[in-house]
Model the fold of this input.
Amino acid sequence: MKITFVGSGNVAWQLSIAMDRAGHTIEQIISRDEDHAKALAVKFGAYYSTDLNSIYDLVDLVILAVPDDHIAEICAELPSVNGVLAHTCGVRSMEVLKGGAFRYGVIYPLQTLNKHVDVDMFKVPFLIEGSDSNATHVLQEIAGDISNTVRYCSSSDRANYHLAAVFTNNFANVLYSMSNEFLTSKDLDFELLKPLIEQTGNNLDHGTPMEQQTGPAMRGDVETMKKHLQMLENRPDLAEIYKMLSAAIEQRKPTHNN
Done:
């Protein structure tokens, strides 16, 4: 399959490399940042440009791997796409692409992607949606070549997965950041928590998140929670989050754990 990417950031970087490895041809990288476009295009000997009007007529798939709030704007600037036009966004409907091509859809990787961090794409779930059977087939084929988990998913269901992913990844990560800041302020080493972070994720292979929940709020250990809040007297922001999340745990724990 011949593919053009519009965008040269983290998602374009990881998807283009995976598709190239699967035997597809990356024809073009189009990006507003010419240096970024060139850096990615040279990996495949592909054409690069900042001009949306330079998109080849005969590519099979044009992937808009751009920030969510730029999709509609870029789509409006595109020349008519002969192949399938797809975006990679979790929360935007595929209908935002309706004016850019006769066939369009979504190929959404349910994973945080960073061009500087290797990822096993075969373990990444892909949620796809097509405007018709032809578009769906193209997206199913390309996603199936790079991932072991591909599911057809409506725009509304995909948005729900995206929201859940924000809780799972973005909000969890900012808690890691808070832990790091707290320990750094005490001249302590955040590295010691990394095995705990890894094991917390691994535990999900053995039950639901709530079934794997531990800690003082889960145990009803009031004295430990009081001690922690005393330790946070000079950090009211962290104390408020501690109380809010402890309350959330207490509300969700099974009654037999009380």
